[in-house]
Design brief:
Blueprint (H helix, E strand, L loop, with lengths): L10 H4 L19 H11 L21 H7 L26 H4 L14 H12 L7 E8 L5 E5 L4 E2 L5 H13 L6 E6 L5 E5 L21 H14 L4 E7 L44 H15 L3 E2 L6 E2 L7 E7 L3 H11 L2 H14 L6 H14 L21 E2 H12 L8 H4 L24 E8 L2 E9 L5 E9 L4 H16 L5
Parallel strand pairs: 5-6, 6-7, 6-8
Antiparallel strand pairs: 1-2, 1-13, 3-10, 4-5, 4-9, 11-12, 12-13
């Protein structure tokens, strides 16, 4: 039997399930220890196996997603771009248990009873009337086993989605380019010359750092310089004219919101997202010249390896010719890992890069407009409900974006479907309530949603959204999307949405 690619492996689990869409996020377990009963189960927000976890994505040997295990081990407690910041003292509290996750362990997938429409309406209708929510409200709950809508109010209304737009970006990018796709940054040399070009391929996670979070897995500008210098010396070259190529992207590089600490210029060449501090997520001051800064750092790394640059000034922009010969390249982590990082931390730079990877795969211009068309076309191929949808950007920072609760729920339902293992990182990357990313500090330990709700947040002034998955009190996997616009108190609005998700988690609702 041929070796399966990482994104194909979930099929080994789903063959055991009663229906193709049944246990979309469930694993199997024989005996759970303390780690799995607390940090493991709660962090996953699903059923965690003692020996293996069957959902795809970048897992370590214990079956725990590496980034989440590091959090649970108190290595780091950062939020994301929506709700950034550290917990007091910078150290998370001990991990609460998630009994409602473990309650589903004993029954095969799909055998837990489903909530009824009327019972869900009884508990959600009063919460949806909370005055903290804005005048436009939408709420959708789907049964992940059957795909049936269990609850829907304003389901088809296309509202401003804020950062939940990233769910659509992720599904489109994974569908278009594939979960194993890696983004290359390379150097080339023009024939019969000493003209070296640093060519940006659109990797937003390229790093120039020696150490720090994600450095071990990211493509390294330092490594690229070392390998380029080695290739040049093999040619007998120790002095070059260096330039850089950002021609992969077209259109304006500045996001329509203007200069903003949530993202840098959208460029196919950048190092560490153009951050001017040592952060790896959340807000930060950004450079106004991400490509030029990366090229200058690269020139310094070349010099460290014995290759000088001839230009007296900084490296300038150029375009590599079709005749240029390859010197070296480095590649990003697989797209599945980029999706997880983007969703966990609500990373806007990664989101805009993935939207452009979708455009490139679709042979559309790698611009805001080209990405809009490519994302929409890709989701149309998946036969998702696109009425009223608009993807003005990939990150959700643009208020011109429009997505319905029906579409958000359908995106998550499709991503959780074992028939689409290539989309699995969309659900494994969702922040876990009370544990990771943008939900790290939104759920108290005694909340029934803590560790059970996995959801993408969305926050703009007057806009609050929450969309994700939840295991209810009976062990049934559900998908939800809650949206509201016109809010005046963001904290109260977020709390209202969190109560809705926690209520679904605490509800058998029959």
């Amino acid at each position: 039997m041929p070796e399966l690619k990482p994104w194909q492996r979930p099929r080994q689990l789903v063959r055991q399930l009663s229906k193709p869409s049944a246990a979309k996020l469930l694993g199997v377990s024989a005996k759970l220890g303390t780690w799995q009963l607390t940090a493991g189960a709660a962090t996953l927000g699903l059923v965690v196996a003692a020996g293996a976890v069957a959902a795809a994505g970048p897992w370590d040997s214990s079956g725990q997603r590496t980034a989440e295990r590091e959090w649970a081990a108190s290595q780091e407690a950062e939020g994301g771009a929506d709700h950034g910041g550290r917990t007091p003292g910078g150290v998370p509290e001990s991990a609460p248990s998630a009994p409602s996750v473990l309650a589903g362990l004993g029954a095969p997938a799909g055998t837990a009873p489903a909530p009824t429409d009327g019972a869900l309406a009884d508990v959600l209708d009063p919460l949806l009337k909370d005055p903290a929510l804005g005048p436009e409200r939408s709420a959708v709950v789907l049964d992940a086993v059957t795909g049936k809508r269990l609850y829907g109010k304003g389901a088809g209304d296309a509202l401003t989605p804020a950062s939940t737009t990233k769910i659509a970006t992720a599904v489109a990018a994974l569908s278009a380019a594939g979960p194993d796709h890696r983004i290359a940054t390379k150097t080339v040399i023009e024939p019969d010359s000493e003209d070296v070009v640093l060519v940006g391929g659109g990797d937003p996670t390229l790093t120039a750092r020696k150490e720090g979070r994600y450095v071990d897995t990211a493509a390294s500008l330092r490594t690229l310089a070392e390998e380029t210098a080695r290739a040049l010396k093999a040619r007998g070259v120790d002095e070059v004219r260096l330039s850089y190529d950002t021609s992969l992207y077209s259109g304006p590089p500045r996001h329509p919101i203007g200069r903003n600490e949530n993202l840098t210029l959208v460029s196919p060449l950048m190092a560490d997202e153009g951050r001017l501090d040592d952060s790896s997520s959340g807000t930060a001051d950004r450079t106004d010249d991400p490509a030029g800064d990366a090229a200058r750092k690269f020139a310094g790394f070349l010099k460290d390896h014995g290759v000088k640059t001839k230009a007296k000034g900084d490296p300038g922009p150029s375009k590599a010719s079709d005749r240029a010969e390859s010197l070296a390249k480095v590649e990003s982590p697989p797209l599945s890992a980029l999706v997880e990082r983007m969703l966990t931390h609500s990373d806007n730079d990664i989101a805009e890069a993935l939207a452009r990877q979708t455009a490139i795969a679709a042979k559309e211009p790698a611009s805001f407009d080209g990405a809009d068309k490519a994302v929409r076309d890709q989701l149309a191929e998946l036969e998702l409900p696109l009425t009223g949808a608009k993807f003005a950007d990939g990150s959700g920072l643009d208020r011109a974006d429009r997505i319905s609760g029906e579409l958000l729920a359908a995106l998550l339902d499709r991503a959780a479907d074992p028939a689409h293992p290539e989309l699995r990182s969309v659900v494994t990357g969702l922040p876990v309530a009370g544990f990771t990313g943008t939900l790290v500090d939104r759920y108290p330990k005694d909340s029934p949603g803590t560790g059970v709700v996995r959801a993408k947040t969305g926050t703009l002034s007057g806009v609050n959204t929450l969309a994700g998955t939840v295991v209810d009190a009976d062990g049934r996997l559900l998908v939800f999307a809650f949206m509201t616009t016109g809010t005046t108190d963001p904290d109260a609005a977020q709390a209202a949405l969190d109560r809705m998700a926690s209520t679904v988690a605490n509800c058998g609702c029959r």
